[in-house]
Design brief:
Keywords: Isomerase. This is Maleylpyruvate isomerase N-terminal domain-containing protein. One of its GO terms (molecular function) is isomerase activity. Pfam families: MDMPI_N. The structure is a single chain. Helices cover about 55% and strands about 5% of the residues. With about 230 residues, the chain is mainly alpha-helical. The protein has one domain: Four Helix Bundle (Hemerythrin (Met), subunit A), CATH 1.20.120.450. A hairpin with a 2-residue loop joins strand 2 and strand 3. Helix 1 packs across helix 6.
Length: about 230
Amino acid sequence: MTATAMPEHRALAEAYAGISRAVGDLTDADLQRPSRCRGWLVADLLFHVLCDAQRALVALASPADGPADVDRVTYWHAFPGNGDPAAAARSAWWARRSAAAFDLPSGVVRLWADTAPAAVRAAGTADPSGFVSTQGHVLAVPDFLATLVTEAVVHHLDLIVDLPAVAGPGPTATAIAVATMDGLLSDDAVRPPDWSDPDYLLKAAGRIPLNGTDRRVLGDAAGWFPLLG
């Protein structure tokens, strides 16, 4: 098996290309529209995802010894939906101030356009049986790529909340993000049948609150939401 045969690599390529298409033609005014993440404009959120792509480049260039201590699902246990609000506020403020350091919001887009394809190329040459270290954990390469895909898909949905004409994430990347949420959900839980994949991802990530019907269908599992922050 070659690295480029990894389904996670194909999903990452789709996820990052989808974000590139979403922001590539936006004006500086559009990049200052609100995102779904509290306190962040589109450009601020794009900078946050850019940091993920940069982190991917570092991790993929620095193989780690195994075994892994987390996988594509348990990795997210360190980022619960009910995490430390003060820490989240500090992180959000740092990203916003960093994005504001660019002369114009489109500067973030240009750096993303250089960095995201490089991260995808690095993922394509990574050893699928290898390991990487990131965020204080060791993951198998395919699981690491799956975490990047999940974050990119959720944030793609966040980016376009005030941009109704912009397309959402692609099906291959979305399927990996949905599988992540399935892994975080109780085995006994039943996903409400009227939820689309975007609904599921946004509710699982705490972007959209559960309604009464959701809570009745989910039962005790409703208390697990949001599944990640």
